[in-house]
Specification:
Number of domains: 1
Radius of gyration: 20 Å
Shape: elongated
Strand content: 5-15%
CATH topology: Arc Repressor Mutant, subunit A
CATH class: Mainly Alpha
CATH architecture: Orthogonal Bundle
Structural class: mainly alpha
Order of helices and strands: HHEHHEEHH
Oligomer: single chain
Helix content: over 70%
Largest sheet: 3 strands, antiparallel
Distance between the termini: 34 Å
Number of helices: 6
Strand order of the largest sheet: 1-3-2
Number of strands: 3
CATH superfamily: Winged helix-like DNA-binding domain superfamily/Winged helix DNA-binding domain
Length: about 150
């Protein structure tokens, strides 16, 4: 009969391997974009802002704070840097002048495409090799990991 302590140790090791796989995979996915950002004096937070503004056009600051899960204070500096570099612009909302809409400039869209394009290409190559079933399972696992119900 298997030792229950040994089974628990084996499971913990499997879960540790899953954590390590997530860490190393994430590191590989962000390596090239991070290097490109560093050359520009920017960081990963700038990429996240550019990404979400591209995929949620005319997002307001409040929505961006919610999406990123950060405070206004945390977001203030990177937004100012992106504005100063003319990668984003701020416009008042047509209906409510208190609301500020964030938009990518042409330069901002181009940079986001360069940064995220490499990541999309990596995913495309990996999913092609892993197969449709593995891709579907990966999406399911990521959705469950992101689900707040598991907290």
């Amino acid at each position: 009969m298997p030792n229950p302590s040994s089974i628990a140790d084996d499971r913990e090791q499997q879960l540790n391997q899953a954590l390590e796989a997530l860490y190393f995979a994430f590191r590989a996915v962000v390596a090239k974009p991070d290097a490109h950002l560093a050359d520009l004096g920017l960081a990963r937070v700038h990429h996240r802002i550019l990404y979400f503004l591209r995929h949620r056009p005319a997002c307001c600051i409040t929505d961006l704070l919610r999406i990123l899960g950060v405070s206004k204070q945390y977001l203030n500096r990177p937004l100012k840097e992106l504005l100063d570099l003319e990668l984003i612009q701020v416009e008042g909302d047509a209906r409510d002048k208190r609301v500020k809409r964030l938009l990518l400039t042409d330069r901002g869209r181009q940079l986001e495409q360069e940064l995220s394009g490499e990541q999309r290409s990596r995913f495309e190559r990996v999913f092609a090799q892993a197969g449709a079933e593995a891709e579907s399972a990966w999406h399911r696992v990521m959705a469950l990991l992101a689900d707040p119900e598991f907290d």
